[in-house]
Write a structure and sequence with these properties.
Chain lengths: ~140, ~140
Amino acid sequence: MKVQDLMKSAVETIAPMESTKEAARKMHDLHIGSLPVVDNGQLVGIITDRDICVRVTATGRDAISTRVKEVMGNAVKTCYADIEIEAAAKLMIDHHVRRLVVLDRNEAISGFLSVDDLAKTSHELASQVLEATIPIH
Amino acid sequence: MKVSELMTSHVESITPSTNLRGAARKMKEMGVGALPVVEDGKVLGIITDRDLACFAIAMGHDLNSAPVSKIMTTQVVTCTPDQDIAAAAKLMASSHIRRLLVLNGDASLAGFFSVDDLVRGSHELAGAVLEAATPVH
């Protein structure tokens, strides 16, 4: 099975200059926990609900004036859509992440793959990813 | 295998009157993603980093004054330490969640049991929980 058979194709993204309030609103409305950050068509990072909790809510920074780029994580991991899901799982395990932004061979964003998606086809693969990634209770 | 063998026992809690910023700071300091809300030894609800990031900011709550009681989840799904992990996993899956509060017989808080704890006991059960969980992406 390939990543493109399992991934979510409709990916919402956010620009680095957007406010974290806008990021929070988008995540809330779409029931998602992360947004790839795209600048002029280029993937530059990923912002998660945890980033917002820890770097905005906890610090008392104002969500409207704080930009996504100040809070996002730069180390977003990617994979190609045409690779096997076992290879994608290995990438997650090796990089200790539970999500990958999926690119087509032209380097354009084509989807999103999380450990939840893996679980739909392999409980074993998903669990291996869980064990390899830092647990937050 | 019993829940008690895998669960996280030493969990911090917060009071319902703690403000959202204080709750987020505690999560940041402890490196956790969820906190039980407890008053007079009784568990009133649960709050997650997602609630504090997306819900709180998207809804425009004043982080310094709004209490966690305003946004916590009160319908908490619980289990007991002596329950079998298969039964606990079934509870998580049917409620589409990834963590349970563990309560002692006297309803006092014993700890947390999340899919990250479960995975150390059974890859199959953990995968099934992820598959059933409300997608967070």
